[in-house]
Amino acid sequence: MQVDRIDRRILDNLQEDGRIPVTSLAERVGLSPNATAERMRRLQRDGVITGFRAVLSPQALDRGLTAFVEVKLDRTDAEVFDSFAKAIRAVPDVEECHMVAGGFDYLVKTRHRDMSAYRAFLSETLLTLPGVRETRTYAVMEAVVERHALPLPD
Fold this sequence. Notes:
Layout: H1 5-16, H2 22-29, H3 33-45, E1 65-73, H4 78-89, E2 94-99, E3 106-112, H5 115-124, E4 132-139
Antiparallel strand pairs: 1-3, 1-4, 2-3
């Protein structure tokens, strides 16, 4: 799929404000509203735009503690990977989970009310998931950069 200069301008604007009216977006990118809407439909159809969502404040929703957790599994085979992946997808406190290469198997980003809530999550949920042998937790003191937009190529 080719993404041209105008597509990139549309995508940049939508990443900044996904609720921008098509007429306003069209003015910003220099196209008619119909042409802009058609490009947006094409970008969605081609899988470049995968959805729209609201960005929520974790603090306002009593989820002010972010923790990153390294998870090491007891075995590294397809059965354990599949079991762990299926189980972690069902855990609501998990914001992100990535299989990684290196000294551990998964990096998990979680959000909690406070350290007490995290400790309960760790002992009652994470450590009970299939294959989990060891974890290492990093509690976030301050989010220095949290981008919700992808940099687009020129």
